[in-house]
Every structure is written in C-alpha cells, then in structure tokens.
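Researcher: Please predict.
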Amino acid sequence: MTLPALSSRRAAIAVTQTSSHTTVLLHEAVDALLSDPSGLYVDATFGRGGHTRLVLSRLSRQGRLIAMDRDSQAIEVAKNIGDTRLTVIHSAFSKLEEYLTEPIDGLLLDLGVSSPQIDTPTRGFSFRSDAPLDMRMDTTQGTTVADWLQTAEQDQIREVIHGYGEERFAARIAAAIVARRATEPITTTRQLASLVASIVKTHEKGQDPATRTFQAFRIFINRELEELDAILAQAQRLLKPQGRLVVISFHSLEDRIVKRALAPSKLDTALRHLPIRGDGVAPSVWTTLGKIKPSQAEIRANPRARSAIMRIAQRAAR
C-alpha cells in the first residue's frame, strides 16, 4: 500500500499538538533513534505523543511506527493522530514481543509518569490536590494504592518505601500507616501526604516530604522496574543489528537498571567456550553511543526535565 507523505505544514502541526505535556529531550531522542527513515520503530511510551509525532514527521512514506501505552487516556490521543503508518497498541511495554512479527530498527522508552497523569487529580499521582489514592497507569486493571495499603504487611510497606523511594524514614512511615488504617482507611492523596509530612521533618530543599513515598508506591503498584527489566531484555532480541535503543529515565533506580543492561556481562570463568575477554567479561550486545542530559534552557522552560538522563545504545552487529 502506498502511504501518503506528510506535508511540511501538517508535520509542524503534528509535532506541536501535545496537549499540556512538554516532551523532554524531544529532538535529541528522535535524532538518536532514527537511523533509517524507511524503517520500523517503536515508541513504547506514547504519553501524549510528542516523540511519536516528531518521528512520524521524519519517516518516509515507507516508514512505520508502533506506539504503545498502558494508559487508556494516552491511547485515545494516539488513535486521533490519523496516520496510516502508525499502529497503536494499548499494553504495557513488557508485552511488546507478543505484538511484533519482524525485527525493528529502533526502540524508544520515555520512562516514569507523564505530566497529564500528574496534573489530573483523579489519577491520584500527586499530593498537591486531594484525590482518590489510585496511581495506576492502567486504570482498567490492577490494584490501587489505597486498596493495597489496607492489607499489606508493615514490613512490605517499609521495604517498598525504602527500596523504591530511598526514604530513610521508611520504617516510621510504614508503622504510622498501619496504625492509622486500624481506625481509618487511607483512601486519599491528602490523607497519605499529611501522614508522611507528620513524620518526615527533614528533606531536600524544595521537595515535599511525601515525594519519596509517593514515588515508591507508584513504582511498586505499576511494577515499573520489573517492566523495565523485561523490555530491556526483549530489546536485545527485537532490534535488528545496529538498531537503536534510546531510554530516558528520571531517577537513579531506573538509570542504574539501564546502565547495567547496556554494560558487558560478568561470566563464570568455567564457561570457556564462550567469547569472553581475559578479565572474564563477555562483550556487550550493545555499543553505547552516549548519555545526554537536558540543557539549562530546557530545564528553565520545563523544570520536570531537570532529573532526566537519556542513554543511547546500538545493537551489536551479528
């Protein structure tokens, strides 16, 4: 089938219509991703489509793009783009392998929660307004944070807050949650934020006391780190030789997982039949092409970009 080319005016409109969401490292990410404008690419975190729209504006008539998201609101936005080169999939990106029938030329991951999710009070991601304590990225399935907190063991709550939020007051917060729920369910963002603020008296300047706890519960309830591990493992199998992997992360837990996945692997020295270096390290399947952080100008325009790190890698040739 012959696909219609985007006019320059249509391309400009497509790239700028991204609702209230400001895409971080927009041009840098797409520049790094696209090696062949006629190739097949995956934007596994559509969000509000900033990256997707720019990729479409640069693809040739033969190029194709798959956009994924597990947020049904994001999927509705994606379906309205109306480009025949675009395939939209409502799914967690850990299931990408189930949908592909051929190797891809590039994979883009823009991790974490999107601005519309944070800014929509009913989603329960933010402590800045009172709302149901939900935090699910896919509201069609799974357990809300409020429901989980009603039954979780104190030790599990502590481990989640400490492990995913790196919060040093995790034990005290967990104990306070369990004590409070015995008399009153914690069902709203304001209830949780107030409880945490009563315990966390020292925190980073300009940071709300509840920031780390909210981050921890969001990561846990959406299995974000497990999802990331799964897609990075799949990327090795799904990308063509010399295909590009571009990952934008927003906190150290994510970035450490990405950095580890792209590094050479330590092997048991008994596995002598494998191609390993003399120091017992197997050559990486990836060639790292760089690490980019937002410019000061971008951070001034969009403060949420300040913690972003983008890592770029290329699949080794077989």
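Model: The chain is about 40% helix and 15% strand.
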